[in-house]
Specification:
Pfam families: ACT_6. Belongs to the UPF0237 family. This is UPF0237 protein ACFP3T_02165. The chain has one domain: ACT domain (Alpha-Beta Plaits). About 40% of the residues lie in helices and about 40% in strands. The protein is built from three helices and four strands. The protein has helices at about 15-25, 55-70, 80-89, and strands at about 1-10, 30-40, 40-50, 75-80.
Length: about 90
């Protein structure tokens, strides 16, 4: 399965490491990543992929929602095909 994950929030030490560690725990491979910091606001977008027989999209979403709550970040995950379709509109 392929997905686009976005992370937004107040800048803090270790955001990339925290998200990457969670993705590694879930066995989600980071294929591409971009991040920026503007006026203390952190934004990251990444493309991830994993074996859908090992981890459902719903389970990945739940885990990332929980991480967002724990860290005070807004984390969204969207299936790659849906993201691509929206970008074509």
């Amino acid at each position: 399965m392929k997905a686009i994950i976005t992370v937004v929030g107040q800048d803090q030490v270790g955001i990339v490491a925290t998200v990457a560690t969670k993705l590694a725990t879930l066995k989600i491979n980071i294929v591409d990543i971009s991040q920026t910091l503007m006026a203390h606001n952190f934004t990251m977008m990444l493309s991830g992929e994993w074996d859908a027989t090992q981890l459902s999209f719903a389970a990945a979403k739940t885990a990332l929602d929980q991480l967002g709550q724990q860290t005070g970040l807004t984390i969204h995950i969207q299936r790659q095909e849906l993201f691509d379709a929206i970008q074509k509109l």
